Amino acid sequence: MNSHYLSNVGISHLRDAFKDSEHISIDNDFCIVNMKFRRKERQLNYPFRFDGILLVWCLKGRLSVSINLNDYILEENDLFICVPGNIFKLNEIVGEDDELHYVCIAMSKDFASSQKVDVNKMFSNALTLLDNPSVKLSDQETSLMVRYIQMMDAVVKSDLVYKKESVQSLWTSMLYVFADVLGRRSRSAETDASTTRSRLLFEQFINLVARYHGQHRNVGFYADKLCLTPKYLSKLIKNATGRSAPDWIDSYVILEAKNMLKYSNCTIKEIVYKLNFPNQSVFYKFFKARTGMTPSEYRNS
Fold first, then answer.
1. Range of the domain at 59
2. H helices then E strands: how many in the chain?
């Protein structure tokens, strides 16, 4: 089993993983890695949570990435975003071309917070990010991204007193450009006030689920956090996504359980404890009802 089960990876870990590649960084707050490798090389090929915002920009070749156990193929000029709380993994290179070139741009959560970057507001259509967290850049957008990265590289290598603050501003500006690209690509914005409220509450709800699903699976807990009744919250989530609130909560719990079963040395008894199930029997029934397999069968599959 891989001992790296759901590591909370930060900038220092990211920098170490790509230590042989060209990169620039500011303390443990910000990093850009210019990564070129062939098929035999592997970095970060296990599931992890990045403690911040991570962009992966594919410049050459094809790269398979996974977010929350959903796989995506990145090709030339595809830009992919991983926001805090998501489970991320770099997978195998796809295709016959062994050469791959991509750029990782990372910012710690604290660094983003100090710049008052509201990711949820920036990416107002959270469902778009859940459905497809990548976008293909046009030639004009690619040129703009290149200029941003070149400027950040120049600032980091300079003797500017306010180097860190300058990079923060450039990063925030670049992130807003990406949000604009994503917004224009997504389906037309909805104007109905009730629908908008449902979607905003869904974003708040899913952020809470990402944080607390290991301890709380009852809709009432999340309704209380949002100052709503369980019935009203369930109705809003159903209207916004077509899926029930318990279904979203269970999906995150199953995701966590699958990762522990596949990528940790935890016994099933330990997993039952970590996910706050009353006993193994309840966990077995929960897992099999949603996957069609027992935890042991999934671990050995």
1. 7-185
2. 13, 11
The reply to whether 148 and 220 lie within a common domain is no
Distance in angstroms (rounded) separating the CA atoms of residues 123 and 182: 8
Per residue of the chain (301 residues), what is the pLDDT tens digit? Answer: 343 345 567 788 877 777 777 888 888 888 998 887 655 555 566 677 777 888 889 988 888 888 876 788 999 999 888 877 777 888 767 665 567 888 888 888 777 766 665 555 555 554 455 556 788 898 999 999 999 999 999 999 999 999 988 998 898 888 788 777 776 666 444 445 556 667 778 878 888 888 888 899 999 999 999 999 999 998 888 887 788 899 989 988 988 888 888 877 889 999 999 999 999 999 999 999 999 999 999 998 8
For residue 51, the tally of other CB atoms under 10 A from its CB is 20
User: Could you give the angle at the alpha carbon of 185 between the alpha carbons of 181 and 190, nearest 5°?
Assistant: 110
Residue 30 in any domain: the answer is yes
φ and ψ at residue 216, rounded to 5 degrees: -130, 125
Calculate the CA 264 to chain-centre distance: 20
Sort 299 into a burial class: Cβ within 10 Å, 0-12 / 13-18 / 19+: middle
Which residues make Cβ contacts (< 8 Å) with residue 300, sequence separation at least 6? none
Token couple for 178:
């990406």
* Count of structural domains within the chain: 2
> Domain check: are 96 and 177 in the same one?
yes
Sheet of 7-9, strand order? 7-9, 48-50, 87-93, 63-67, 70-74
- On whether both 141 and 233 belong to a single domain, the answer is no
Q: Choose the final residue of a domain: 185, 220, 251.
A: 185
Asked if 174 and 239 sit in the same domain, the reply is no
Global pTM reads 0.68
Q: Are residues 138 and 209 in the same domain?
A: no
